[in-house]
Amino acid sequence: MEERTSVNNPQIKAISKLEKKKYREETGYYLIEGFHLVEEALKSHVKYREILATEKALAQLSSLPFDLDDDKLIKISDNVAKHLSSTKNSQDVFMTVKMQQPGQFTFTYGKWVLLDDLADPGNVGTIIRTADAAGFDGVILSPQTVDLYNPKVQRSMQGSQFHISLIKQDLADAIGQLQNADIPVYASMLDQNAKQLNDFAPVPQLGLIIGNEAHGVSTDIAALADEKLYIPIKGQAESLNAAVAAGIMIYHFS
């Protein structure tokens, strides 16, 4: 097991750069933080490059039921852990994980959430976690949706990225594939032709489009949907948070 005590160590400097999308794309790796995420990654047998942990964190890590490769373990100082952390209260354990984005994906079955240019990382992570909890097969992210490997998205997903398919793809192409497989696609939006959510019975397969927090589902994407639906507002709030609305609809169709 190697040890790193300086934030100026070349390896530590390179890992700290993974906070930025540019370096994640260049290296093909991203950084996760915390025992829960590291444990979920190990359970799912994901490909990783190294695990970094303080002496105290290593002791806790050794209690997990996994045979860890000593060559991939790096002991770090508290100062290095603080430098790598993206949170105020770090758990002092990190893992560099291989990005797993298929070049092509064919949608032939299942229940899918489609994210149309969502900008808030907390919303994206929460929707993915909710889709996982409800037994959906995966989430399709438009190219302009916030980066899946953003640290805030990672924290919000809480390991769900290791449980379901997460695909970045042009939504028009994905919608076409779903419909060609006889999977109906519904768009969540306020529209004069939209129907109330409760008018829809749960279906065995579907695609559910969630729109951008400020602008909703784009006109071009909405035009491709088989149906438009909305959640009635019974109080005086103008609208629901995107992740909350998505959660209500996901569980309605689960």
UniProtKB/TrEMBL annotation:
Q: Which CDD domains match?
A: SpoU-like_rRNA-MTase
Highest taxon, organism lineage:
Bacteria
Q: Which GO terms describe its cellular component?
A: cytoplasm
Q: GO biological process: what's one of them? A: methylation
Keyword DNA repair applies: no
What keywords appear on the UniProt entry?
Methyltransferase, Transferase
Q: Name one GO molecular function term.
A: RNA methyltransferase activity
Domain RNA 2-O ribose methyltransferase substrate binding as annotated: residue spans: 31-103
| Classification via SMART domains | SpoU_sub_bind
PANTHER family linked to this entry: RRNA METHYLTRANSFERASE 3, RRNA METHYLTRANSFERASE 3, MITOCHONDRIAL
Specify the protein name: RNA methyltransferase, TrmH family
Origin species: Lactobacillus equicursoris DSM 19284 = JCM 14600 = CIP 110162
